[in-house]
Every structure is written in C-alpha cells, then in structure tokens.
Amino acid sequence: MALTLTREKAQPAIVLRSPGYWQGVLARLSRDRIAMIALIVVALLILMAILAPYLAPDDPTRGSLARRLKPLGTPGHVLGTDELGRDMLSRLIWGARLSLVMGVVPVPVAFVLGSAIGIIAGYAGGLTNSIIMRTVDVFYAFPSVLLAVALSGTLGSGLTNALVSLTVVFIPQIARVAESVTTQVHRLDYVEAARASGAGSLAIVRVHILGNVLAPIFVFSTSLISVSMILAAGLSFLGLGVRPPDAEWGLMLNTLRTAIYINPTIAALPGVMIFITSIAFNLFSDGLRNAMDVKT
Amino acid sequence: MQTPPAIIDIRNLAVTFRGGSRKVRAVNGVDLTVDRGEVLALLGESGSGKSVTLRSLLRLHPKGTLIEGEIKVAGQDVMRLGRRALADLRGGTVSMIFQEPRLALDPVYRVGDQIVETIRRHMPVSRSEARARALRLFEDVRIPSPESRLGNYPHEMSGGMLQRSMIAMALACDPAILLADEPTTALDATVQIQILLLLRELQTRRGLAVVFVTHDIGVAAQVADKVAVMYAGRIVESGHIADVIHNPRHPYTQGLLDARVELAQGSSRLRTIEGAPPDLSALPPGCAFAPRCGRVAETCRTVVPELHSGSTSVACFEPLRG
Amino acid sequence: MSLDLGGPAQPLLTVQGLVKHFPVKGSGLMRRRVVRAVDGIDFKVKKGETLGVVGESGCGKSTTARLIMKLLDPDSGTVLFDGQKLGHELELSAYRRQVQMVFQDSYASLNPRLTIEESIAFAPRIHGVTARAATERAHALLNRVGLDPGRFAGRYPHELSGGQRQRVNIARALALEPRLVILDEAVSALDKSVEAQVLNLLLDLKDEFGLTYIFISHDLNVVRFLCDRVMVMYLGKAAEIGDTEAIYERPGHPYSKALLASMPKANPAERMDEPPLAGDPPNPIDPPSGCRFHPRCALAEPVCSQSEPPLLQLGGDHEAACLANMSGSGHSLAPSRAP
C-alpha cells in the first residue's frame, strides 16, 4: 500500500531554506534605529557596571565631611559629591551594578516561572486552569508597588529579599500573558492536527506551543525590566533593598533627598540614571515587539 | 439622439499598495462603465483586483495607497472630491454592503438606531420620521416582525438577517449606486439565494446601478446584466453575462468556466488551469495570463493586450471565436 | 502496517448513536441549556468509498468530524473502525495512525514556526520513525502532492499560497499512511481554479493509496463530483443518506430538495424567481419539536411537529427521514400501507 512513498526516493540535492523566524526578527531589529540606539545605551550601562573598579575615579564609600555637596564641575569631582562627601561619579558608576542586578535579575526568573505556570494552565484548561489562574489573580489584584513593598517588608530588607519579592510581583503578570497566548494557540487547527496524529501533550507543547508562545511572552517580559528598575529603586529608596553604604541609585535618591534644597542637580543625578536605563530598556523592548510582530 | 452618460465611468484606473519595500500593483489599468439601473458583476479570483476596483469608487483604501486614473461616479470626479464631499458621497449617492455584516455593524448599538443615525446624517429629517423610514426599509428587505427586530443588537440576529439589515442600512438614503463586495459568500446556500433574489428585486424596483463583486460564476449569473472578468488587476473580458458564459472568448474565462465541477459529472477528472496567478509585485511584461495560457503566442509575452470590443470585449491577441 | 481486517464487505467506519451536546455559556443555573450539535446519528463508511457530508452551518457536520477524530469525546455513541470498537479492541494511538484530517483553514492548520518538511515529518517522528526517514518521507510526499521538495521543504507556511498550503496539509495527513482521511471543507477556501487542481489531486491520491474519504462540504456541486454516497444533515440529525446519484436525482427529503435547488445555476436563462426555502437555519440550542425541519418545510402538516420521523428506506440503501414518505405516519402525502 502506501509504502510506494519510500521507493520513489525524491531526495533533492539542495533544499532551499528560508531564513528562520529569529533570523527575520534580528534583521528587522537591526534596521530599527531607535531600538539599536537603546541597545547601545543598555550595553554601555552594563559595561560600565562590569568595569566599575577601573572606571570609577574614587572609592564610592569613602567620604569626607569637608567636601559635602560640592556642585557639578568641582575639580576632582566632575559630578560633585553627595551629602557625606563621597564622589558622585564613582557612586553612580558603582551603583549601576546593584541597580542593574535588581532591575534585571527578577525578570528572567519570573519569565521562566511565570511562563511555566501560564503555559500549564493554558494547555490544561478546565478546572486546572481555573485553580491556577484564580490563585495567580489573587496576587495580580494588588498594585505591583504595594505587593513589592509588602513582600519586602515581610521578608526584611536586603538584596536577596528584594530580588525575591520583585520576582514574585512579576510572576502573576507574566503567567497571565502566558496563559492567554497559550489558550489562543491551543485552539488553532495545527494543534488539533497534532493531537489527531497521536502526539502526546509533551510533544505538542514542545514542538507546537512553546515556539509560538515564547516570543510574545518574551516581549512582554522585556517590557517589565524598566518597571523592575523603577520598583527596585523604590524599594531601596524605602530602605527595603540595598543597605547603606552600598551605592545603588534608588538608595542614593533617598539619602540625597535631604539635599534637594541645597543642591538639587546632585540630588537629581541618580534619578536621571534610573530614567535613562528604564527608557533604554523600554525602547529596546518596543523595537523587539515590532520586530517580532510581523503578520506572517 | 444622445445616450445618457454612464453613472460610473472609470478610466485607466491603477491602484498600487506600498507594503514595506515592495510595491503591489493590485489594479493595473481598468476601464469600466456602468449605466443607470444596470447590474455589473466583477468576477475574479482572490488577488484579481475586483474588490480593490470596487473600493476605489469610494476611495476606501488604506493610507499610502496610490490611486491613478479617472473615476466619475454620478457626475462627480471622485479623485478630486474633498473630505466633506466624499463623506456625502459615501452612504448618500453610493452605498456599500460587505461580506461580513458582523464587522460592518457596530456591536454595541441596536440595529434600528444605526439605521436612524445613517438616515439623519444624510437627510434633514426628524427622529420619528427617520424611525418610520427605518421600519419601511426593514419591511422592504423582508425582515419578519420588523418593528421588534429594529430593537435587536447585531449579535441577536442570524447571518441572513444581518445581511438584510445591512442592505436596509445601505438603502437608507436612496442611493443611486449599490456596491456589493461578495455579500453572500459567507452565507448558507439556502440563505444565499434568498439574499440574491432580494437584491435583484430591490435593484429592479429602485432602478439601482449595482456593482457586484464575486468569485462565483453561478452567483454572477443569477444577478448580473453584464460581467467583467478580472485577472491580475486587469479586465480580461467583459460583456453581457449570457454572452460571456455561453461564448467565452478569453482563454482565462474559458478555463474558469471549464473548471466548474458541475460540468464534470460522470468524468473522472476536472479540467483545470495549470499554474497559479502571478505575483502582483512582479508582473510579467506581457499578458499576465500568458504563463498559464494554452494559446500563448510570442507577442503575448511582451505586449499587454488591450480590451477590444466586439460582441464581448476581450483583452487577448488570440481570442477564441465567440 | 495497518491490515484490512474484515475484508471489503466490512464497513471501514461504523458510527452508532453519536450524540454531542455543548453547554451554553451563561445559561441559567436552574435549566442548563445545551447546543444539540450532534443529536443521534448513525452511518457507515464503506472501504474505498467517499462519503459526502453536507448541510448548513449549525447542522453538526464539523462536530461529527471532530467526534470521529476523537478530538472531542461524544456524550454517547460508539465508533467501530474496521469492525473494532474504539477504546476497547482498538487503542486510540493505533486508531489515530489510521485516521487523519485536513482542515478548512490551510494557514491555521500549519505551525507558522515550523518549515514545511518539519510539519509533515512531525507525525512520523512521534510514531518512532527516525529523523532521516521522516524527512525523506516528507520529501516524497511533497513530490507526490505536486510541490518540488527542493523549493518548498525548507520554507515556512506564510511563504506559500493557499493552494500550496492545502497541498502541504494533505501531505501531512498522509504522512502516517492512514486508511481514512476526513476532509473538513478542505477545498472551500480555495479559488475555483485551484480548487479544481486540488480535487484532482485528492482523486489521484485516493486511487494510489487506497484511501477512504469523508468529505465534508457545503458545496453540493463538489460533493456530487467527488462522492459515492452522501449524508445530508440538518440540526444535528441525518435527514437523508444514500448514493449520490439517487439523492441528486430523486431527493427523498424536502430539505435535500430545497438545498439542491438553492445552488445558483451558472446560466442566466435559468434564474430563479422564488427562493426554494424561506428563513434562516434555526438555532441548534432549541430545535423544533417533531421533525426539526417542519417550520421551514413546504410539505409540513400538523403531524410533523408532533412525531419525529426515523430514517426510512426508499430503495437500495437510500434512506430519508420524512413523514411524507412513511406509510401510516398520518401525513397526507404518505403512501398507503403496503398490502
């Protein structure tokens, strides 16, 4: 019967390959000027954080009461000094380390956990879906700031606890997105066709679901990095994140708060850094979304 | 004696979409006239440019679309109309019905209110007058218990009922021209024929000029006086519907007619047109049908044939004897 | 491989008393309303034949397909495949290898992130074929459905035309070497000239691989061309079943007659004046009592709203469910009782 198929071996020498989806995304992304500039800014910030010991002109924790709150352009302290006389430039450079860690780390962790939760719920459907998603909704119902503060407050201050609470804040958000795209894809004919050919759940999820849902979840997650940056800064500002005297932009904003009437430009500097970083991540994630969102 | 001017007169229409870096020539030099009270079917497959041609009559294209040529509708130069005049034309003199009434009607308003709104936008009448008019329209399109149906939301109506409502709305301001874009394609067979007969009846009673876009020869045969067959953005053959169906002169028209399954009863295979329509962003230099044509000659591959009139007009260097 | 068990006389598929109701969302707590999508149908598909299933939206033809494919679980009813009861004598995974489906939407039925060859090779891979052999089979199938593997195997669905994609879907359905292929409006979305090409292909493949088809369609012309037998469905029930020519020449149910008369003839001289059938297909949530067709039927009499007609033999295996054909039904047109 159908075994004729294997007999007429039609093995062509060359199979024309179309560029894959991700190649297309990269190509489109590289043509997006704004996204590329944002990417360069992000790369520079990361580089700055890594090379902090070599770039910083001064020790970020060594202060001197004699040179408190020096203005911009002071010889030896280009960006002035803070309320304890520490060199602002050095603190901003060193601050990038903790700020970036706090801003960036929770998102990939939440991406993995949230996607898993959402995809399971979306694929299983029915009662399992209801149980998982209603639990997720309980967390989602709180405003993210409130939830982050409440969690950090309960866990106590410190970098790790801040990271944990930020991750917990993002999991429900990512899970909801993951659940809705999975439910959508799950209904498509090609998933039905795969079921009809006897494929098990694991194979269907791996081959047909993941490839089609991870991209939109990923885009949504990258947009959370900027939120995470701001929340992390907020936690530190409230004293729930990094402890002094470590340099972190949110914490610096807090300690400089008292100096706002004396030297407002210095007090604003950490804010500017937070702003630049968060905008850069945001623009890059926008570009990524545009590059991925093609009507194929 | 002078013949009255055609109510629709299109000359050398070309429509180009710019999608990214590619330019897609959806319509590529179309001449078309429709007289008052006449039904013209634009027949073609997907990508033939039939819908795009139809939409050009109201300039309903997305931004960035290049429209060239002359379009005269009811004495007005559509290409030169300002925003206001264009809005008056749409739904006033010319109205349109679509394949998916569900997308054309607003889901959050009652159908009756939407018709009343349409009437009041184009005519200086009171609310109650508009209401009475809407009721008469619902009776005209044979909606049972029209009074209560006016109060329905779109989701409360079946597909056939919605299409009737949309026809009522299209006729609300006594248009002279009705444009129909595959209005029965999404309907069930028994409902499709009801809507076709309704359209024909309303057309005759009101003396409407109708341009009816369809891919279905059977549907065209049921409603149209004349037919224009389109392929790759050009009209390849046009004439009276009976002439074109019984004596096709263009090889493509003949291919389409031959491919009909109802002709193949008893035989084991269908006659087909081999190959596929050309890429509209890279049209061949000559006749667009040449690569698929059984009668192809040297000239066909280099020169675009013009539409020559005869008993039917045909754009072909080697037409079949009609 | 898959063996022919019962010989040619044994039906390949026997469906008995198939029922599927869907709960209506947002219906009251007290009385749960249901859509009676499929409401008790019986039919057989003979080996090597093509059974057409026709009817309008809401008649249950697509639900029937999904029930046969086991993509949905029926509320009741049994499916026998080559005499073996599904779920008892025949395991689902073995059944799935032998029954495949082609869907209407050629785009939605292909994973946009997989190349054509990956899509076709997926099912064989699941069933333990090596990657190399599965790819080879995919290429051979592409060749067979008229697509040059060198040009198409490495491409993505969005780069193909509708007709080409549907050829890929057909190749994909054949990759497991099934015996029964369900074609759910598989050519309905295609342009007429492409449709003709795909129909020819389906005929050739059927001969070559000894396939049996269930062909679901709303296009009666296509069904007449392709199918040996036809089942006409109305609101979850079979209105008529029989040989194609018998039904098209002598429809035994008023609905089949009206449906056939509704097809527009491609001849302007044969224009209709009156629609053969008034009204819209009713909602399967609350189907009419008695014969479900009676509110739209030209032959309807009071008795039609009271008793539900069974499928009645008209000759050969031509059956129709109409009281006007049933002697002693109380319908005025019913034949008098045979002596």
Automatic annotation (TrEMBL), chain A:
Swiss-Prot/TrEMBL keywords: Cell membrane, Membrane, Transmembrane, Transmembrane helix, Transport
Residue stretches spanning the membrane: 34-56, 98-125, 145-171, 213-240, 260-284
Domain ABC transmembrane type-1: 96-285
Entries under InterPro entries matching the protein: BP-dependent_transpt_permease, MetI-like, MetI-like_sf, OppC_N
Domain of life the protein comes from: Bacteria
Gene Ontology cellular component list: plasma membrane
Statement: the UniProt record of this protein carries the keyword NAD: no
Topology in membrane: Multi-pass membrane protein
Record carries keyword Disulfide bond: no
GO BP term, example: transmembrane transport
Main subcellular localisation: membrane
Subcellular location: Cell membrane
PANTHER family, alphabetized: OLIGOPEPTIDE TRANSPORT SYSTEM PERMEASE PROTEIN APPC (PTHR43386), PEPTIDE ABC TRANSPORTER PERMEASE PROTEIN (PTHR43386:SF25)
Protein family: Belongs to the binding-protein-dependent transport system permease family.
Protein's name in the database: Peptide/nickel transport system permease protein
TrEMBL record, chain B:
Keyword Cell membrane found: yes
Keywords: ATP-binding, Cell membrane, Membrane, Nucleotide-binding, Transport
Domain ABC transporter: 10-257
Gene3D superfamilies: P-loop containing nucleotide triphosphate hydrolases (3.40.50.300)
Keyword field contains Cell membrane: yes
Domain of life where this protein originates: Bacteria
Protein name as it appears in the record: Peptide/nickel transport system ATP-binding protein
Species whose genome carries this gene: Arboricoccus pini
Lineage: Bacteria, Pseudomonadati, Pseudomonadota, Alphaproteobacteria, Geminicoccales
UniProtKB/TrEMBL annotation, chain C:
Pfam family, one: ABC_tran
Enzyme class: translocase
Membrane topology: Peripheral membrane protein
Enzyme Commission code: 7.4.2.10
Cited InterPro entries: AAA+_ATPase, ABC_transp_ATP-bind, ABC_transporter-like_ATP-bd, ABC_transporter-like_CS, Oligopep_ABC_C, P-loop_NTPase
Assembly information from the UniProt record: The complex is composed of two ATP-binding proteins (GsiA), two transmembrane proteins (GsiC and GsiD) and a solute-binding protein (GsiB).
Family assignment from sequence similarity: Belongs to the ABC transporter superfamily. Glutathione importer (TC 3.A.1.5.11) family.
Function comment: Part of the ABC transporter complex GsiABCD involved in glutathione import. Responsible for energy coupling to the transport system.
Entry protein name: Glutathione import ATP-binding protein GsiA
Lineage, highest ranks first: Bacteria, Pseudomonadati, Pseudomonadota, Alphaproteobacteria, Geminicoccales
